[in-house]
Amino acid sequence: MAETMKQTVAGILKSIERYNPANLQTLERYVEMQSKENTYDLEANLAVLKLYQFNPEKFNADITYVTLKHWVKKYGWRDDGSLIFIANQDENIKTKNITEKIEFDHLAPLMALL
């Protein structure tokens, strides 16, 4: 099942369907699967966050928490209570591999919820 889900999501991400809110449920299930299997798919997670940005009425704080928690773990950031410290961002994140950029100013209200 995990491999089928991975292929389905890969197909979504390679097309305009990545911006279709009808695919949000599939992408959210994939985020949950990543959490259970301790895997990380940057492109899928960015697609979920981008869909929340475009469709704020579909925002799911639990999925966003899981996504950001994985991001923090993946890039060696540390959570110190209510603050997140970004250490050596230039060394840990290869920006040439990220096709979309998250504006952290837009995430401030979200982080307040976490």
UniProtKB/TrEMBL annotation:
<dbReference type="InterPro" id="IPR016020">
    <property type="entry name" value="Transl_init_fac_sub12_N_euk"/>
</dbReference>
<dbReference type="GO" id="GO:0005852">
    <property type="term" value="C:eukaryotic translation initiation factor 3 complex"/>
</dbReference>
<dbReference type="InterPro" id="IPR009374">
    <property type="entry name" value="eIF3k"/>
</dbReference>
<dbReference type="GO" id="GO:0003743">
    <property type="term" value="F:translation initiation factor activity"/>
</dbReference>
<keyword id="KW-0396">Initiation factor</keyword>
<dbReference type="GO" id="GO:0043022">
    <property type="term" value="F:ribosome binding"/>
</dbReference>
<protein>
    <submittedName>
        <fullName>Eukaryotic translation initiation factor 3 subunit K</fullName>
    </submittedName>
</protein>
<dbReference type="InterPro" id="IPR016024">
    <property type="entry name" value="ARM-type_fold"/>
</dbReference>
<dbReference type="GO" id="GO:0006446">
    <property type="term" value="P:regulation of translational initiation"/>
</dbReference>
<dbReference type="InterPro" id="IPR036390">
    <property type="entry name" value="WH_DNA-bd_sf"/>
</dbReference>
<keyword id="KW-0648">Protein biosynthesis</keyword>
